[in-house]
Amino acid sequence: xxxxxxxxxxxxxxxxxxxxxxxxxxxxxxxxxxxxKERIDREQLCGDTTPCSFSxxxxxxxxxxxxxxxxxxxxxxxxxxxxxxxxxxxxISETASTGARFSLISAEDLDVGVNGLREYLLSDNDNFILxxxxxxxxxxxxxxxLQKPLDRETNPNLSLKLIAVDGGTPQRSGTVNINxxxxxxxxxxxVFNQSIYKVVVTEMSPIDSYVTTVKASDADxxxxxxxxxxxxxxxxxxxxxxxxxxxxxxxxxxxxxxxxKDKKYELRIDAKDKGGLTDSSKVxxxxxxxxxxxxxxxxxxxxxxxxxxxxxxxxxxxxNVKDVDS
Length: 326
Hints:
Blueprint: H1 6-11, E1 15-17, E2 25-28, E3 33-36, H2 42-46, E4 52-60, E5 65-73, E6 87-93, E7 101-103, E8 117-122, E9 128-134, E10 140-146, E11 157-166, E12 173-183, E13 191-192, E14 196-202, E15 210-213, E16 216-217, E17 227-231, E18 242-244, E19 250-253, E20 264-273, E21 278-288, E22 296-302, E23 317-322
Parallel strand pairs: 6-12, 14-21
Antiparallel strand pairs: 1-4, 2-3, 4-5, 7-10, 8-11, 9-10, 11-12, 13-16, 15-19, 17-20, 18-19, 20-21, 22-23
């Protein structure tokens, strides 16, 4: 690809330069090939970023040349969808209206593309159907929707299974149990005053910094009208970055917010009354960048001494400057 022959590789003392702590590849200059030096785990290297690649430089001397090399890592289906819990528990009133929605925890699949999470399936039952959605970042989540009213006298408890499957071959799957306890009489579900809340938070904000407040109202009286708030997916990694006051709906910073790691977060919030009815909303948090990273300068190659009769334009050294801020 570079148009170099083996003689030039040898005479130029070709070598690889990488700023990474792990050298995944090795140059066989006598054969003109790159070989794998360390086992490459795509999930460890790139997470859910796709396409996954890493880059390094090859330097030759006499005369000095610099070539950029990029290696793309393709995914294999070596991970199954997994839930962080083995069961979920719902308390739902028998007067819950048809169409009532109940958020389900999400599965995580470290694979990407066709090998990643494809869909959710709900075990056969008479009362609920499954609706699937995708966030702006294409991560899939599901809701359980009531299609036939519950009857506590007929069946006070339901046992269901939520199955997450990926698109790989052979297909892999993960399962979580859903337990539904049927409660008596709660006529109105909480209703959020906004379906989507949008807010901007500066990276490196101190712990306990205020983010926003979500608000839902419930027309019921007494204990059935008391609303509590919580993250729909309590086991999500976002729970390490943000926290919510279950009584007021106020959201605060809990962990380290880094623009260079993620520029936007989406939190799904549930409001639940004492009768078990819920409504859901979404909080979209944009992260504002601050200048918290200094440029990093590295000298990749340097020629010394320099002959006094070197012509103008002779390459003396090669430096590389990087700054991860936007």
